[in-house]
Specification:
There is one protein chain. The protein contains 7 helices and no strands. By secondary structure, it is an all-alpha fold. Helix 5 crosses helix 6.
């Protein structure tokens, strides 16, 4: 298990993971996702000792530890990639991992407004609702992303639509 020094932060991340919608939780823990991330690490030249940082960055993104628009910066800093490689890797993660569950995540984070989030909080957007969730210009809670929900197969990378 990856060590998270701050006990409160560890608890918050576990709480947020447990509160994720089913498909998002599956995405975060599925072996296919791990294999996909390992393949991306190879393609983008991530040093083997930093592979876990790439995986952990995706998990942190899913549980709302930072907004999607910061993924490129996070990958550059924590994984040690040049800005252009970090931006391209972030775009691949957004397209292949986040887009298929964007609708589910949007609906879940909208539940922050009603308090039905299982106690989790959110930091995805720049404008935030009363519970820390991101808002669009109309006050609706949304992902801070230009992602259009779904991909061509509607599932995890390499997974056929059910």
């Amino acid at each position: 298990m990856i060590a998270i020094e701050d006990q409160a932060r560890r608890y918050t991340m576990l709480e947020r993971f447990a509160a994720l919608p089913p498909n998002s939780r599956l995405l975060a823990s599925d072996l296919k996702t791990g294999a996909y991330i390992k393949g991306l690490a190879r393609i983008y030249g991530v040093a083997e000792e930093n592979g876990w940082k790439l995986s952990f960055s995706v998990l942190r993104l899913l549980v709302g530890d930072f907004p999607l628009h910061e993924l490129s910066r996070i990958l550059g800093q924590e994984v040690g990639l040049a800005a252009d490689k970090a931006a391209a890797l972030a775009a691949d993660i957004e397209k292949e991992l986040i887009a298929p569950v964007a609708l589910e995540l949007n609906a879940y984070w909208a539940s922050l407004k009603t308090g039905n989030d299982g106690g989790a909080t959110r930091s995805f957007g720049s404008a935030q609702d009363d519970n820390g969730g991101p808002q669009d210009d109309n006050g609706a809670t949304t992902l801070d992303s230009p992602v259009k929900p779904g991909n061509d197969n509607g599932g995890l990378p390499g997974q056929a639509r059910q």
